[in-house]
Specification:
By secondary structure, the protein is mainly α. The chain has five helices and no strands.
């Protein structure tokens, strides 16, 4: 098993690597990592940010058509509505369970036995001719 070793780089070394990237002597962050044996995938990016060289960091640009933006906002709205509906359903479920517990307590019946009786009344009896679809 490989032991993890903490490596500390001097500020002069960090500046030299970033300067070589800025001047074009190194083509990419990956080139710098390979050339100097720098292990972390985010190490050089952190140096660039600390040294104020954010302009050297690769940028990701997203281009979308207006209908794609509309679709995204519609999907976000739909997710919000579904989350609200789920929350309301959960509240109703808790209320129904609580009402059932209160009713069973007043009747002097356990909730489990009430549910068993209710389930058997809902199911068709064998041979009654009522088939499940």
């Amino acid at each position: 098993m490989r032991a993890w070793v903490s490596v500390r780089y001097s500020m002069a070394f960090k500046r030299r690597v970033v300067a070589e990237l800025e001047s074009g002597r190194l083509c990419s962050i990956q080139d710098a990592r390979v050339r100097y044996g720098i292990g972390g995938s985010q190490t050089i990016r952190k140096w660039m940010k600390r040294l104020g060289k954010n302009h050297l960091l690769p940028k990701v640009m997203r281009v979308e058509k207006p209908e794609e933006a509309d679709q995204l906002s519609q999907l976000r709205r739909q997710v919000r509505e579904l989350q609200q509906a789920l929350g309301q359903t959960q509240v109703h479920n808790i209320l129904n369970e609580t009402f059932l517990e209160i009713a069973c307590k007043r009747l002097g019946v356990s909730v489990e036995s009430f549910k068993k009786k209710a389930d058997t009344k809902r199911l068709p009896k064998p041979g009654s001719g009522k088939a499940c679809r």
